[in-house]
Protein backbone atom coordinates (compact mmCIF):
# COMPACT_ATOMS: atom_id res chain seq x y z
CA UNK A 1 0.00 0.00 0.00
CA UNK A 2 1.45 3.35 -0.96
CA UNK A 3 1.34 6.26 1.45
CA UNK A 4 -1.16 8.04 -0.78
CA UNK A 5 -3.59 5.12 -0.69
CA UNK A 6 -3.22 4.90 3.08
CA UNK A 7 -3.93 8.63 3.45
CA UNK A 8 -6.93 8.30 1.09
CA UNK A 9 -8.39 5.49 3.23
CA UNK A 10 -7.80 7.53 6.37
CA UNK A 11 -9.49 10.65 4.97
CA UNK A 12 -12.51 8.83 3.57
CA UNK A 13 -13.01 6.89 6.81
CA UNK A 14 -12.90 10.11 8.85
CA UNK A 15 -15.60 11.70 6.72
CA UNK A 16 -17.66 8.52 6.89
CA UNK A 17 -17.32 8.46 10.69
CA UNK A 18 -18.47 12.08 10.95
CA UNK A 19 -21.52 11.32 8.78
CA UNK A 20 -22.48 8.12 10.60
CA UNK A 21 -22.61 9.61 14.07
CA UNK A 22 -24.33 12.93 13.61
CA UNK A 23 -27.76 13.12 15.29
CA UNK A 24 -27.41 10.27 17.73
CA UNK A 25 -29.97 10.52 20.56
CA UNK A 26 -28.54 11.11 24.06
CA UNK A 27 -29.88 7.74 25.23
CA UNK A 28 -27.32 6.05 23.01
CA UNK A 29 -24.30 8.21 23.82
CA UNK A 30 -22.80 5.75 26.28
CA UNK A 31 -23.44 2.55 24.29
CA UNK A 32 -22.15 4.28 21.18
CA UNK A 33 -18.99 5.23 22.99
CA UNK A 34 -18.35 1.80 24.49
CA UNK A 35 -19.25 0.06 21.23
CA UNK A 36 -17.00 2.23 19.09
CA UNK A 37 -14.31 1.87 21.73
CA UNK A 38 -14.48 -1.89 21.27
CA UNK A 39 -13.99 -1.37 17.53
CA UNK A 40 -10.87 0.71 18.22
CA UNK A 41 -9.52 -2.46 19.82
CA UNK A 42 -8.91 -3.55 16.20
CA UNK A 43 -5.28 -2.89 17.06
CA UNK A 44 -5.55 -6.48 18.34
CA UNK A 45 -4.86 -7.83 14.84
CA UNK A 46 -1.56 -5.95 14.81
CA UNK A 47 -0.82 -7.27 18.28
CA UNK A 48 -1.41 -10.86 17.13
CA UNK A 49 1.17 -10.51 14.36
CA UNK A 50 3.69 -8.84 16.71
CA UNK A 51 3.29 -11.51 19.37
CA UNK A 52 3.40 -14.43 16.95
CA UNK A 53 6.16 -13.34 14.58
CA UNK A 54 8.89 -14.79 16.79
CA UNK A 55 11.27 -11.98 15.86
CA UNK A 56 12.93 -11.36 19.22
CA UNK A 57 12.09 -11.77 22.89
CA UNK A 58 11.45 -8.04 23.25
CA UNK A 59 9.00 -7.77 20.36
CA UNK A 60 7.22 -10.96 21.47
CA UNK A 61 6.83 -9.69 25.03
CA UNK A 62 5.55 -6.30 23.80
CA UNK A 63 3.20 -8.08 21.42
CA UNK A 64 1.96 -10.41 24.15
CA UNK A 65 0.97 -7.55 26.45
CA UNK A 66 -0.62 -5.77 23.49
CA UNK A 67 -2.73 -8.88 22.80
CA UNK A 68 -3.90 -8.96 26.43
CA UNK A 69 -4.79 -5.26 26.59
CA UNK A 70 -6.46 -5.18 23.18
CA UNK A 71 -8.49 -8.34 23.90
CA UNK A 72 -9.74 -6.86 27.19
CA UNK A 73 -10.70 -3.75 25.22
CA UNK A 74 -12.50 -5.68 22.49
CA UNK A 75 -14.30 -8.33 24.56
CA UNK A 76 -15.11 -6.03 27.48
CA UNK A 77 -16.33 -3.28 25.15
CA UNK A 78 -18.72 -5.41 23.13
CA UNK A 79 -20.03 -7.31 26.16
CA UNK A 80 -20.70 -4.22 28.25
CA UNK A 81 -22.38 -2.49 25.31
CA UNK A 82 -24.58 -5.51 24.82
CA UNK A 83 -25.45 -5.46 28.50
CA UNK A 84 -26.47 -1.81 28.36
CA UNK A 85 -28.49 -2.18 25.19
CA UNK A 86 -30.36 -5.21 26.51
CA UNK A 87 -31.58 -3.01 29.38
CA UNK A 88 -33.31 -0.85 26.79
CA UNK A 89 -34.90 -3.69 24.83
CA UNK A 90 -35.97 -5.73 27.84
CA UNK A 91 -38.38 -2.98 28.78
CA UNK A 92 -39.73 -2.72 25.25
CA UNK A 93 -40.62 -6.40 25.13
CA UNK A 94 -42.44 -6.41 28.44
CA UNK A 95 -44.65 -3.56 27.33
CA UNK A 96 -45.74 -5.03 24.05
CA UNK B 1 -6.87 -17.93 -3.58
CA UNK B 2 -3.66 -17.06 -1.81
CA UNK B 3 -3.44 -16.49 1.92
CA UNK B 4 -2.91 -12.77 1.42
CA UNK B 5 -6.12 -12.57 -0.61
CA UNK B 6 -8.09 -14.38 2.08
CA UNK B 7 -6.81 -11.95 4.68
CA UNK B 8 -7.57 -8.89 2.57
CA UNK B 9 -11.07 -10.12 1.76
CA UNK B 10 -11.68 -10.87 5.43
CA UNK B 11 -10.56 -7.35 6.29
CA UNK B 12 -12.94 -5.90 3.72
CA UNK B 13 -15.87 -7.80 5.22
CA UNK B 14 -14.83 -6.67 8.70
CA UNK B 15 -14.58 -3.02 7.59
CA UNK B 16 -18.09 -3.16 6.10
CA UNK B 17 -19.45 -4.75 9.28
CA UNK B 18 -17.82 -2.00 11.38
CA UNK B 19 -19.39 0.72 9.23
CA UNK B 20 -22.88 -0.83 9.23
CA UNK B 21 -22.50 -1.65 12.93
CA UNK B 22 -21.59 1.93 13.86
CA UNK B 23 -24.54 3.21 11.86
CA UNK B 24 -26.79 0.77 13.71
CA UNK B 25 -25.50 1.96 17.08
CA UNK B 26 -26.92 5.40 16.29
CA UNK B 27 -30.59 4.37 16.52
CA UNK B 28 -32.31 2.75 19.52
CA UNK B 29 -34.05 0.06 17.50
CA UNK B 30 -31.00 -1.09 15.56
CA UNK B 31 -28.38 -0.57 18.28
CA UNK B 32 -28.19 -4.15 19.64
CA UNK B 33 -27.81 -5.50 16.12
CA UNK B 34 -25.21 -2.84 15.33
CA UNK B 35 -23.16 -3.90 18.31
CA UNK B 36 -23.40 -7.53 17.26
CA UNK B 37 -22.26 -6.65 13.75
CA UNK B 38 -19.23 -4.84 15.13
CA UNK B 39 -18.36 -7.88 17.24
CA UNK B 40 -18.77 -10.18 14.25
CA UNK B 41 -16.48 -7.95 12.18
CA UNK B 42 -13.89 -8.14 14.93
CA UNK B 43 -14.13 -11.94 15.11
CA UNK B 44 -13.65 -12.25 11.34
CA UNK B 45 -10.69 -9.87 11.43
CA UNK B 46 -9.01 -11.87 14.20
CA UNK B 47 -9.66 -15.23 12.55
CA UNK B 48 -8.21 -14.27 9.16
CA UNK B 49 -5.22 -12.63 10.88
CA UNK B 50 -4.43 -15.95 12.54
CA UNK B 51 -3.73 -17.53 9.12
CA UNK B 52 -1.12 -14.82 8.41
CA UNK B 53 2.09 -16.62 7.48
CA UNK B 54 4.27 -14.28 9.52
CA UNK B 55 2.74 -15.76 12.66
CA UNK B 56 5.05 -18.62 13.60
CA UNK B 57 4.21 -19.52 17.15
CA UNK B 58 0.75 -19.64 18.60
CA UNK B 59 1.25 -20.42 22.27
CA UNK B 60 1.66 -16.80 23.37
CA UNK B 61 -1.32 -15.79 21.29
CA UNK B 62 -3.51 -18.41 22.91
CA UNK B 63 -2.45 -17.38 26.41
CA UNK B 64 -2.83 -13.68 25.65
CA UNK B 65 -6.25 -14.09 24.07
CA UNK B 66 -7.50 -16.31 26.89
CA UNK B 67 -6.29 -13.84 29.53
CA UNK B 68 -7.84 -10.90 27.70
CA UNK B 69 -11.18 -12.63 27.18
CA UNK B 70 -11.38 -13.68 30.82
CA UNK B 71 -10.49 -10.26 32.22
CA UNK B 72 -12.59 -8.34 29.70
CA UNK B 73 -15.70 -10.46 30.19
CA UNK B 74 -15.33 -10.40 33.96
CA UNK B 75 -15.03 -6.61 34.04
CA UNK B 76 -17.93 -6.12 31.62
CA UNK B 77 -20.31 -8.51 33.37
CA UNK B 78 -19.60 -7.46 36.93
CA UNK B 79 -19.47 -3.68 36.60
CA UNK B 80 -22.29 -1.72 38.19
CA UNK B 81 -24.03 0.76 35.95
CA UNK B 82 -22.99 3.60 38.25
CA UNK B 83 -19.33 2.70 37.60
CA UNK B 84 -19.74 2.74 33.84
CA UNK B 85 -17.68 5.93 33.34
CA UNK B 86 -14.68 4.31 35.06
CA UNK B 87 -14.95 1.18 32.93
CA UNK B 88 -15.21 3.15 29.69
CA UNK B 89 -12.16 5.20 30.72
CA UNK B 90 -10.26 2.01 31.51
CA UNK B 91 -11.09 0.39 28.16
CA UNK B 92 -10.09 3.55 26.30
CA UNK B 93 -6.75 3.45 28.08
CA UNK B 94 -6.19 -0.22 27.29
CA UNK B 95 -6.89 0.42 23.62
CA UNK B 96 -4.38 3.28 23.53
CA UNK B 97 -1.83 1.23 25.47
CA UNK B 98 -2.19 -1.73 23.12
CA UNK B 99 -1.59 0.53 20.11
CA UNK B 100 1.62 1.89 21.66
CA UNK B 101 2.91 -1.62 22.34
CA UNK B 102 2.10 -2.78 18.80
CA UNK B 103 3.69 0.29 17.22
CA UNK B 104 6.83 -0.08 19.35
CA UNK B 105 7.14 -3.80 18.76
CA UNK B 106 6.65 -3.46 14.99
CA UNK B 107 8.95 -0.46 14.72
CA UNK B 108 11.74 -2.34 16.47
CA UNK B 109 11.21 -5.41 14.30
CA UNK B 110 11.08 -3.44 11.05
CA UNK B 111 14.25 -1.55 11.98
CA UNK B 112 16.15 -4.69 12.88
CA UNK B 113 15.16 -6.18 9.55
CA UNK B 114 16.38 -2.98 7.89
CA UNK B 115 13.07 -2.19 6.22
CA UNK B 116 12.28 1.12 7.88
CA UNK B 117 10.97 4.06 5.92
CA UNK B 118 10.12 7.64 6.78
CA UNK B 119 6.42 6.83 6.72
CA UNK B 120 6.79 4.03 9.26
CA UNK B 121 8.99 6.14 11.53
CA UNK B 122 6.60 9.10 11.52
CA UNK B 123 3.58 6.85 12.09
CA UNK B 124 5.35 5.04 14.96
CA UNK B 125 6.23 8.39 16.54
CA UNK B 126 2.64 9.69 16.32
CA UNK B 127 1.21 6.43 17.67
CA UNK B 128 3.64 6.45 20.59
CA UNK B 129 2.69 9.98 21.55
CA UNK B 130 -1.09 9.70 21.08
CA UNK B 131 -1.36 6.17 22.47
CA UNK B 132 0.72 6.90 25.56
CA UNK B 133 -1.31 10.06 26.23
CA UNK B 134 -4.53 8.07 25.88
CA UNK B 135 -3.25 5.44 28.30
CA UNK B 136 -2.08 7.78 31.06
CA UNK B 137 -4.93 10.26 30.56
CA UNK B 138 -7.43 7.42 30.94
CA UNK B 139 -5.72 6.16 34.07
CA UNK B 140 -5.95 9.64 35.62
CA UNK B 141 -9.61 9.92 34.56
CA UNK B 142 -10.22 6.46 36.08
CA UNK B 143 -8.62 7.51 39.39
CA UNK B 144 -10.61 10.74 39.50
CA UNK B 145 -13.89 9.00 38.69
CA UNK B 146 -13.28 6.50 41.47
CA UNK B 147 -12.71 9.42 43.79
CA UNK B 148 -9.32 8.05 44.83
CA UNK B 149 -7.29 10.67 43.02
CA UNK B 150 -7.76 14.13 44.48
CA UNK B 151 -4.61 15.75 43.10
CA UNK B 152 -5.40 18.70 40.87
CA UNK B 153 -1.89 19.63 39.80
CA UNK B 154 0.47 22.34 40.94
CA UNK B 155 1.07 26.01 40.20
CA UNK B 156 3.56 25.75 37.36
CA UNK B 157 1.73 22.95 35.61
CA UNK B 158 0.91 24.76 32.34
CA UNK B 159 4.59 25.65 31.82
CA UNK B 160 5.80 22.14 32.63
CA UNK B 161 3.20 20.81 30.23
CA UNK B 162 4.48 22.99 27.39
CA UNK B 163 8.08 21.96 28.15
CA UNK B 164 7.24 18.26 28.12
CA UNK B 165 5.28 18.74 24.90
CA UNK B 166 8.24 20.46 23.23
CA UNK B 167 10.74 17.83 24.36
CA UNK B 168 8.41 15.06 23.15
CA UNK B 169 8.04 16.82 19.85
CA UNK B 170 11.81 16.95 19.53
CA UNK B 171 12.03 13.18 20.03
CA UNK B 172 9.26 12.69 17.49
CA UNK B 173 11.08 14.79 14.90
CA UNK B 174 14.28 12.91 15.64
CA UNK B 175 12.58 9.56 15.06
CA UNK B 176 10.65 10.67 12.00
CA UNK B 177 13.19 12.77 10.19
CA UNK B 178 16.75 12.20 11.12
CA UNK B 179 17.22 8.93 12.85
CA UNK B 180 14.65 6.33 11.88
CA UNK B 181 16.55 3.64 13.77
CA UNK B 182 16.37 5.46 17.10
CA UNK B 183 14.96 2.92 19.52
CA UNK B 184 15.96 4.96 22.56
CA UNK B 185 14.19 8.02 21.16
CA UNK B 186 11.06 5.94 20.76
CA UNK B 187 11.07 4.90 24.42
CA UNK B 188 11.71 8.46 25.50
CA UNK B 189 8.87 9.64 23.29
CA UNK B 190 6.52 7.09 24.85
CA UNK B 191 7.59 8.30 28.31
CA UNK B 192 7.01 11.89 27.20
CA UNK B 193 3.54 11.07 25.89
CA UNK B 194 2.71 9.26 29.12
CA UNK B 195 3.80 12.27 31.19
CA UNK B 196 1.91 14.65 28.90
CA UNK B 197 -1.30 12.63 29.31
CA UNK B 198 -0.99 12.91 33.09
CA UNK B 199 -0.30 16.63 32.95
CA UNK B 200 -3.28 17.25 30.67
CA UNK B 201 -5.74 15.15 32.65
CA UNK B 202 -4.81 16.05 36.21
CA UNK B 203 -6.25 19.61 36.36
CA UNK B 204 -9.57 18.57 34.81
CA UNK B 205 -12.53 18.64 37.19
CA UNK B 206 -15.45 16.27 37.49
CA UNK B 207 -17.93 18.32 35.46
CA UNK B 208 -15.60 18.29 32.46
CA UNK B 209 -15.34 14.50 32.58
CA UNK B 210 -17.91 13.86 29.81
CA UNK B 211 -15.75 15.88 27.42
CA UNK B 212 -12.58 14.10 28.53
CA UNK B 213 -14.06 10.60 28.24
CA UNK B 214 -15.40 11.35 24.75
CA UNK B 215 -12.03 12.80 23.72
CA UNK B 216 -10.09 9.80 25.06
CA UNK B 217 -12.43 7.59 23.07
CA UNK B 218 -11.55 9.55 19.93
CA UNK B 219 -7.83 9.37 20.73
CA UNK B 220 -7.89 5.60 21.17
CA UNK B 221 -9.30 5.45 17.66
CA UNK B 222 -6.63 7.78 16.30
CA UNK B 223 -3.91 5.65 17.90
CA UNK B 224 -5.30 2.51 16.24
CA UNK B 225 -5.45 4.33 12.92
CA UNK B 226 -1.83 5.53 13.03
CA UNK B 227 -0.78 2.02 14.06
CA UNK B 228 -2.26 1.00 10.72
CA UNK B 229 0.24 3.29 8.99
CA UNK B 230 3.10 1.53 10.83
CA UNK B 231 1.86 -1.93 9.90
CA UNK B 232 0.64 -0.98 6.43
CA UNK B 233 -2.73 -2.41 7.45
CA UNK B 234 -5.85 -0.98 5.78
CA UNK B 235 -8.35 -2.32 8.32
CA UNK B 236 -6.58 -0.63 11.23
CA UNK B 237 -6.58 2.65 9.33
CA UNK B 238 -10.28 2.44 8.43
CA UNK B 239 -11.61 1.19 11.78
CA UNK B 240 -9.37 3.51 13.79
CA UNK B 241 -10.32 6.65 11.91
CA UNK B 242 -14.03 5.75 12.01
CA UNK B 243 -13.82 5.61 15.79
CA UNK B 244 -11.66 8.72 15.94
CA UNK B 245 -14.19 10.69 13.91
CA UNK B 246 -17.23 9.46 15.81
CA UNK B 247 -15.48 10.20 19.11
CA UNK B 248 -14.78 13.70 17.88
CA UNK B 249 -18.47 14.26 17.05
CA UNK B 250 -19.41 13.21 20.57
CA UNK B 251 -16.71 15.44 22.06
CA UNK B 252 -18.09 18.35 20.07
CA UNK B 253 -21.65 17.70 21.33
CA UNK B 254 -20.36 17.69 24.92
CA UNK B 255 -18.37 20.90 24.45
CA UNK B 256 -21.39 22.64 22.97
CA UNK B 257 -23.50 21.58 25.93
CA UNK B 258 -21.04 23.37 28.23
CA UNK B 259 -20.50 26.35 25.97
CA UNK B 260 -16.76 25.73 26.17
CA UNK B 261 -14.28 24.97 23.46
CA UNK B 262 -12.18 21.85 23.62
CA UNK B 263 -9.07 23.97 24.16
CA UNK B 264 -10.78 25.68 27.10
CA UNK B 265 -11.50 22.36 28.76
CA UNK B 266 -7.98 21.01 28.23
CA UNK B 267 -5.84 24.05 28.75
CA UNK B 268 -8.07 26.74 30.22
CA UNK B 269 -7.84 27.43 33.91
CA UNK B 270 -10.71 25.72 35.64
CA UNK B 271 -12.92 28.22 37.48
CA UNK B 272 -11.45 28.54 40.94
CA UNK B 273 -13.43 27.40 43.92
CA UNK B 274 -14.88 29.97 46.26
CA UNK B 275 -15.66 29.77 49.97
CA UNK B 276 -18.01 27.18 51.34
CA UNK B 277 -21.65 27.55 50.42
CA UNK B 278 -23.06 28.53 53.80
CA UNK B 279 -21.38 31.92 53.68
CA UNK B 280 -22.79 32.79 50.26
CA UNK B 281 -26.37 31.89 50.89
CA UNK B 282 -26.64 32.87 54.54
CA UNK B 283 -30.14 32.23 55.80
CA UNK B 284 -31.92 33.04 52.55
CA UNK B 285 -32.41 29.35 51.89
CA UNK B 286 -35.80 27.77 52.55
CA UNK B 287 -35.42 24.18 53.60
CA UNK B 288 -38.12 21.59 53.55
CA UNK B 289 -39.01 18.06 54.67
CA UNK B 290 -40.16 14.84 53.04
CA UNK B 291 -43.71 15.36 54.34
CA UNK B 292 -43.93 18.84 52.87
CA UNK B 293 -42.68 17.61 49.48
CA UNK B 294 -45.21 14.79 49.57
CA UNK B 295 -47.98 17.32 50.11
CA UNK B 296 -46.78 19.38 47.18
CA UNK B 297 -46.64 16.31 44.97
CA UNK B 298 -50.16 15.26 45.93
CA UNK B 299 -51.50 18.50 44.53
CA UNK B 300 -49.31 18.37 41.42
CA UNK B 301 -50.45 17.34 37.98
CA UNK B 302 -47.15 17.53 36.24
CA UNK B 303 -43.74 16.73 37.76
CA UNK B 304 -40.32 16.96 36.14
CA UNK B 305 -37.32 15.18 37.64
CA UNK B 306 -33.85 16.53 36.86
CA UNK B 307 -31.10 14.07 37.78
CA UNK B 308 -27.41 14.85 38.12
CA UNK B 309 -24.20 13.26 39.32
CA UNK B 310 -25.57 13.22 42.89
CA UNK B 311 -28.12 10.62 41.83
CA UNK B 312 -25.33 8.40 40.49
CA UNK B 313 -23.19 8.76 43.61
CA UNK B 314 -26.10 7.87 45.88
CA UNK B 315 -27.26 5.04 43.57
CA UNK B 316 -30.68 6.62 43.78
CA UNK B 317 -32.00 5.52 40.39
CA UNK B 318 -34.18 2.71 41.75
CA UNK B 319 -35.59 4.94 44.48
CA UNK B 320 -36.40 7.48 41.76
CA UNK B 321 -38.21 4.81 39.76
CA UNK B 322 -40.37 3.95 42.79
CA UNK B 323 -41.23 7.60 43.27
CA UNK B 324 -42.16 7.86 39.60
CA UNK B 325 -44.43 4.80 39.83
CA UNK B 326 -46.10 6.07 42.98
CA UNK B 327 -46.80 9.40 41.30
CA UNK B 328 -48.01 7.78 38.10
CA UNK B 329 -50.38 5.58 40.11
CA UNK B 330 -52.18 8.74 41.19
CA UNK B 331 -52.26 10.10 37.64
CA UNK B 332 -49.42 12.56 37.94
CA UNK B 333 -47.53 13.09 34.69
CA UNK B 334 -43.82 12.47 35.30
CA UNK B 335 -40.97 13.21 32.92
CA UNK B 336 -37.22 13.47 33.24
CA UNK B 337 -35.15 16.43 32.03
CA UNK B 338 -31.64 15.40 31.13
CA UNK B 339 -28.81 17.79 30.44
CA UNK B 340 -26.24 16.45 27.94
CA UNK B 341 -23.37 16.81 30.42
CA UNK B 342 -25.23 15.68 33.56
CA UNK B 343 -23.06 13.05 35.22
CA UNK B 344 -19.56 12.03 34.33
CA UNK B 345 -19.80 10.71 30.78
CA UNK B 346 -22.01 11.26 27.74
CA UNK B 347 -25.36 9.58 28.32
CA UNK B 348 -24.55 8.71 31.97
CA UNK B 349 -28.03 9.56 33.32
CA UNK B 350 -29.75 7.69 30.50
CA UNK B 351 -27.85 4.50 31.32
CA UNK B 352 -28.67 4.72 35.03
CA UNK B 353 -32.36 5.38 34.43
CA UNK B 354 -32.47 2.55 31.91
CA UNK B 355 -30.96 0.25 34.52
CA UNK B 356 -33.80 1.23 36.84
CA UNK B 357 -36.17 0.25 34.00
CA UNK B 358 -37.48 3.72 33.34
CA UNK B 359 -38.72 3.90 29.78
CA UNK B 360 -36.65 6.18 27.62
CA UNK B 361 -39.80 7.78 26.27
CA UNK B 362 -40.03 9.57 29.63
CA UNK B 363 -36.52 10.96 29.23
CA UNK B 364 -36.49 14.37 27.59
CA UNK B 365 -33.36 16.11 26.43
CA UNK B 366 -32.68 19.77 27.02
CA UNK B 367 -34.49 21.17 23.97
CA UNK B 368 -37.54 19.03 24.60
CA UNK B 369 -37.88 19.67 28.31
CA UNK B 370 -37.13 23.38 28.56
CA UNK B 371 -40.41 24.66 27.08
CA UNK B 372 -42.33 22.36 29.45
CA UNK B 373 -40.99 23.70 32.76
CA UNK B 374 -43.54 26.54 32.67
CA UNK B 375 -46.30 23.95 32.92
CA UNK B 376 -44.59 21.92 35.65
CA UNK B 377 -46.09 22.11 39.12
CA UNK B 378 -43.06 20.62 40.83
CA UNK B 379 -39.56 20.09 39.52
CA UNK B 380 -37.32 17.85 41.60
CA UNK B 381 -33.60 18.43 41.10
CA UNK B 382 -31.63 15.44 42.36
CA UNK B 383 -27.93 16.04 42.81
CA UNK B 384 -27.53 18.44 39.90
CA UNK B 385 -26.13 21.92 40.32
CA UNK B 386 -24.32 23.74 37.54
CA UNK B 387 -26.65 22.47 34.80
CA UNK B 388 -29.60 24.19 36.51
CA UNK B 389 -27.79 27.38 37.54
CA UNK B 390 -29.74 30.40 36.21
CA UNK B 391 -26.56 32.50 36.50
CA UNK B 392 -25.47 30.93 33.21
CA UNK B 393 -28.43 32.70 31.62
CA UNK B 394 -28.69 35.93 33.64
CA UNK B 395 -25.22 36.90 34.80
CA UNK B 396 -22.81 37.77 31.98
CA UNK B 397 -19.90 37.82 34.47
CA UNK B 398 -20.51 34.31 35.71
CA UNK B 399 -17.78 31.77 34.83
CA UNK B 400 -20.44 29.59 33.25
CA UNK B 401 -22.20 32.46 31.42
CA UNK B 402 -23.72 31.26 28.16
CA UNK B 403 -23.76 27.59 29.06
CA UNK B 404 -27.15 26.17 28.03
CA UNK B 405 -29.03 25.12 31.16
CA UNK B 406 -32.28 23.48 32.15
CA UNK B 407 -34.74 26.27 33.01
CA UNK B 408 -36.06 24.58 36.15
CA UNK B 409 -36.75 27.98 37.76
CA UNK B 410 -39.66 28.39 35.33
CA UNK B 411 -41.70 25.75 37.15
CA UNK B 412 -44.06 26.65 39.97
CA UNK B 413 -42.04 24.99 42.70
CA UNK B 414 -38.50 23.65 42.57
CA UNK B 415 -37.35 21.08 45.10
CA UNK B 416 -33.59 20.65 45.24
CA UNK B 417 -32.38 17.43 46.85
CA UNK B 418 -28.82 18.04 47.99
CA UNK B 419 -26.60 16.79 50.74
CA UNK B 420 -25.20 20.19 51.63
CA UNK B 421 -24.83 23.66 50.20
CA UNK B 422 -21.38 23.05 48.83
CA UNK B 423 -20.95 24.67 45.43
CA UNK B 424 -20.80 22.50 42.29
CA UNK B 425 -17.69 21.79 40.30
CA UNK B 426 -17.60 25.29 38.87
CA UNK B 427 -17.41 26.56 42.45
CA UNK B 428 -19.97 29.26 41.86
CA UNK B 429 -23.02 30.22 43.84
CA UNK B 430 -26.33 29.04 42.46
CA UNK B 431 -29.05 31.74 42.70
CA UNK B 432 -31.60 28.98 42.18
CA UNK B 433 -31.11 27.90 45.80
CA UNK B 434 -32.30 31.25 47.16
CA UNK B 435 -35.09 31.81 44.63
CA UNK B 436 -38.58 32.35 46.11
CA UNK B 437 -40.01 29.24 44.47
CA UNK B 438 -37.16 26.94 45.52
CA UNK B 439 -37.19 24.59 48.49
CA UNK B 440 -34.05 22.79 49.61
CA UNK B 441 -34.28 19.28 50.92
CA UNK B 442 -31.03 18.41 52.65
CA UNK B 443 -30.57 14.68 52.30
CA UNK B 444 -28.70 11.91 50.59
CA UNK B 445 -30.44 11.46 47.23
CA UNK B 446 -31.47 7.83 47.79
CA UNK B 447 -32.59 8.17 51.42
CA UNK B 448 -34.35 11.42 50.63
CA UNK B 449 -36.35 10.10 47.69
CA UNK B 450 -37.29 6.95 49.63
CA UNK B 451 -38.58 9.16 52.47
CA UNK B 452 -40.68 11.20 50.05
CA UNK B 453 -42.19 8.08 48.49
CA UNK B 454 -42.96 6.73 51.96
CA UNK B 455 -44.63 9.97 52.97
CA UNK B 456 -46.65 9.89 49.76
CA UNK B 457 -47.95 6.35 50.25
CA UNK B 458 -48.72 6.84 53.94
CA UNK B 459 -50.80 9.95 53.48
Write a concise synopsis of the structure shown:
Chain A has 96 residues and is mainly α.
Structural overview:
- The complex is a heterodimer of chains A (96) and B (459).
- Chain A has 96 residues and is mostly helical.
- Chain A has one domain.
- Helices cover 83% and strands 0% of the residues of chain A.
- Chain A has four helices and no strands.
- In chain A, helix 2 packs antiparallel against helix 4 (57-95) and helix 3 (43-52) runs antiparallel to helix 4 (57-95).
- Chain B has 459 residues and is an alpha/beta fold.
- Chain B folds into three domains: 1-78; 82-267, no CATH class; 277-458, Rossmann fold (3-Layer(aba) Sandwich), CATH 3.40.50.
- Chain B contains 18 helices and six strands.
- Chain B has a six-stranded parallel beta sheet with strand order 3-2-1-4-5-6.
- In chain B, helix 15 links the parallel strand 2 (333-338) and strand 3 (363-365).
- In chain B, helix 6 packs antiparallel against helix 7.
- Classes of the chains: A mainly alpha (96), B alpha/beta (459).
- At the A-B interface, helix 1, helix 2, helix 3 and helix 4 of A face helix 1, helix 2, helix 3, helix 4 and helix 8 of B.
Task: Fill in the keyword field for this structure.
heterodimer; A: 96 residues; mainly alpha; 4 helices; 0% strand; B: 459 residues; alpha/beta; Rossmann fold; 3 domains; 6-stranded parallel sheet; 61% helix
Q: How many beta-strand elements of chain B?
A: 6
Tell me the span between the first and last alpha carbons of chain B.
Answer: 77 Å
Q: Strand order of the main beta sheet of chain B, please?
A: 3-2-1-4-5-6
What Rg of chain B do the Cα atoms give? 25 Å
Roughly how much helix do the residues of chain B carry, as a percent range? Answer: 55-70%
* String of helices and strands of chain A: HHHH
Segments of chain B where pLDDT lies below 50 for 5+ residues?
271-278
Kindly state the percentage of residues in helix of chain A. over 70%
Amino acid sequence: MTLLIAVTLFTLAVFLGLELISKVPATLHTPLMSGSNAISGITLIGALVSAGADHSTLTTVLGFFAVVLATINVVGGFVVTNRMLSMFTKRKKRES
Amino acid sequence: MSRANVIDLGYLVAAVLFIVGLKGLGRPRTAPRGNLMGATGMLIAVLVTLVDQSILSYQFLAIGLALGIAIGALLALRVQMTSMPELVALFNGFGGGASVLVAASSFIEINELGNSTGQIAVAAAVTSLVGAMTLSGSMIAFGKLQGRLKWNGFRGLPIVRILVALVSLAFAVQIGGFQPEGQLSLWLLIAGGFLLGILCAVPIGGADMPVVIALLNALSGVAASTTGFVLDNSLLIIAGSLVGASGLVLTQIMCKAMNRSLLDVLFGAAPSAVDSGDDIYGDQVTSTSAEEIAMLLELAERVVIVPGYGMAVAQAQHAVRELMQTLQASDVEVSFGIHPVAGRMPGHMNVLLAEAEIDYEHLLDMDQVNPTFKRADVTIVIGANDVVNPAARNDPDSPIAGMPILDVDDSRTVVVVKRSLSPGFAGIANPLFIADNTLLYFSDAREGILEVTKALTES
